[in-house]
């Protein structure tokens, strides 16, 4: 939470005698935004310094003798690591982590530059995997979120580079990222790290399906396994962060099925997985997911699985069923938001409902309505829905606050 939020909500706590005025001032004092801003400066400075060094070396690289090049790489990397450790021992954690991060960047840059110096030809991303592994080890050594994010970025970009440049998927990179950084995510229970891990994992699953040219539905098996893991996390903010990206992926897939599915032209071989194996895998994940939800007393959230219903295997009515799934899921998110009095969830559910409505509008009217009229009516519908739902949200939240007095 931020200082601004505490300053806004704190007086109400004092008024209800939940805390005293002195306690309120002490709580506000804990959220000094100035200190957070100053703490970020070394990290930003490390990024700029790293870019400056890389650009300088790249501009003059060809004019530097080979032995001096190798010495520069070793000296710069060692200096950054040594400086980082020194500042960390002095208690200047931000600056120490910033220099350690520069050491990690220097290590990766050194791998590339040494390969160029000695004309080494790479046929896979083993060197990048080693770089990511080094970042993972540093993450555990210093328990740093910044080093975690850099390592996660290295693995994600390396995987993309492998599929794009070498046309092969690196299972080793995925395994090291999923096990190493995944366990760190599980330990820290940090919302930001969990969001980033979930996004990277889903993207890498997409790369796997595309690279192997597998039926697209296989994508949802590892993705929903990630969702299922979120049901066994006690901290709900972390669980939501782990599950939101898989649900967004399923929601987008349902939209695509509504807008673009055509039985006459669609290639089922590119989409449909083997029914027995795929549906069996989903049912198994659903069972484990529901068990976790019941343990956490969140059984009603099993309704989120409606987006994964395998309507695509039916012979007719596929678009209508996926459209209904979109609306039901949107209503569910709205309903849970109102029940929990969670403003973010209400806003998100509102956005999903508006999006579902526009998908239905586009599906039903695009082919036969004049295009200018289509956009005019669509805009009016969007504005009307937005006004109505926002008005309804404010009314319900106001009633909820009134009931607390």
Question: Brief description of this entry?
Answer:
This protein is mainly alpha-helical and 405 residues long. The protein contains 15 helices and no strands. The longest helix is centred in the last third of the chain and has 34 residues, at 371-404.
Which features characterize this protein?
mainly alpha, 405 residues
Structural account:
The chain is mainly α and 405 residues long. It has a domain at 122-213. It is 78% helix and 0% strand. The protein is built from 15 helices and no strands. The protein has helices spanning 3-15, 21-30, 33-60, 66-89, 93-117, 126-142, 145-166, 171-188, 191-212, 220-230, 236-260, 275-295, 318-340, 343-365, 371-404. Helix 6 (126-142) packs parallel to helix 8 and helix 8 (171-188) packs antiparallel against helix 9 (191-212). The longest helix has 34 residues, at 371-404. The chain crosses the membrane at residues 40-61, 67-88, 95-114, 120-139, 146-162, 168-185, 192-210, 240-259, 271-291, 311-334, 372-389. This is DUF2157 domain-containing protein. Keywords: Membrane, Transmembrane, Transmembrane helix. It holds the Pfam family DUF2157. It comes from Paenibacillus rigui.
Counting DSSP H or I runs of 4 or more residues, the number of helices is 15
Q: Quick one: biggest sheet?
A: none
Overall strand count: 0
Q: For the CA atoms, what is the radius of gyration?
A: 26 Å
Mean pLDDT reading: 80
Report the β-strand fraction as a percent range.
Answer: under 5%
Shape: globular
Find the structural class using helix and strand composition.
mainly alpha
Head-to-tail CA distance between termini: 25 Å
Helical content stands at over 70%
Domain DUF2157: 12-147
Keywords: Membrane, Transmembrane, Transmembrane helix
Organism: Paenibacillus rigui
Transmembrane segments: 40-61, 67-88, 95-114, 120-139, 146-162, 168-185, 192-210, 240-259, 271-291, 311-334, 372-389
């Amino acid at each position: 939470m931020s200082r601004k939020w505490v300053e806004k909500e704190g007086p109400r706590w004092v008024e209800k005698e939940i805390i005293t005025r002195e306690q309120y001032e002490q709580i506000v004092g804990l959220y000094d935004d100035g200190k957070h801003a100053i703490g970020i400066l070394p990290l930003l400075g490390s990024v700029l310094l790293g870019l400056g060094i890389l650009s300088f070396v790249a501009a003059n690289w060809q004019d530097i003798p080979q032995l001096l090049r190798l010495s520069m790489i070793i000296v710069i990397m060692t200096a950054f690591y040594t400086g980082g450790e020194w500042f960390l021992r002095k208690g200047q954690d931000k600056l120490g982590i910033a220099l350690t991060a520069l050491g990690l960047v220097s290590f990766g840059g050194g791998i590339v530059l040494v390969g160029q110096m000695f004309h080494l030809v790479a046929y896979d991303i083993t060197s990048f995997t080693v770089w990511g592994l080094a970042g993972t080890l540093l993450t555990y050594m210093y328990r740093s979120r910044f080093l975690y994010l850099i390592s996660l970025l290295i693995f994600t970009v390396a995987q993309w580079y492998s599929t794009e440049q070498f046309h092969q998927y690196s299972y080793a990179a995925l395994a090291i990222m999923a096990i190493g950084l995944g366990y760190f995510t599980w330990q820290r229970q940090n919302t930001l790290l969990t969001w980033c891990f979930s996004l990277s994992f889903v993207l890498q699953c997409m790369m796997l399906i595309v690279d192997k040219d597998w039926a697209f539905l296989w994508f949802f098996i590892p993705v929903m396994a990630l969702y299922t893991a979120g049901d066994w996390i006690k901290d709900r903010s972390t669980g939501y962060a782990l599950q939101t990206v898989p649900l967004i992926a399923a929601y987008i897939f349902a939209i695509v099925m509504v807008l673009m599915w055509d039985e006459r032209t669609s290639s089922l071989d590119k989409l449909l997985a083997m029914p027995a194996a795929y549906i069996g895998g989903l049912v198994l994940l659903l069972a484990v997911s529901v068990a976790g939800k019941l343990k956490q007393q969140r059984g009603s959230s099993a309704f989120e699985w409606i987006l994964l219903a395998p309507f695509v295997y039916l012979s007719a009515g596929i678009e209508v069923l996926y459209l209904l799934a979109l609306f039901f899921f949107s209503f569910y998110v709205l309903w849970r938001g109102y029940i929990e009095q969670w403003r973010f969830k209400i806003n998100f559910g509102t956005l999903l409902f508006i999006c579902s409505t526009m998908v239905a509008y586009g599906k039903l009217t695009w082919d036969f309505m004049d295009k200018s009229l289509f956009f005019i009516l669509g805009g009016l519908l969007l504005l009307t829905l937005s006004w109505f739902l926002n008005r309804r949200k404010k009314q319900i939240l106001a009633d909820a606050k009134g009931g607390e007095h």
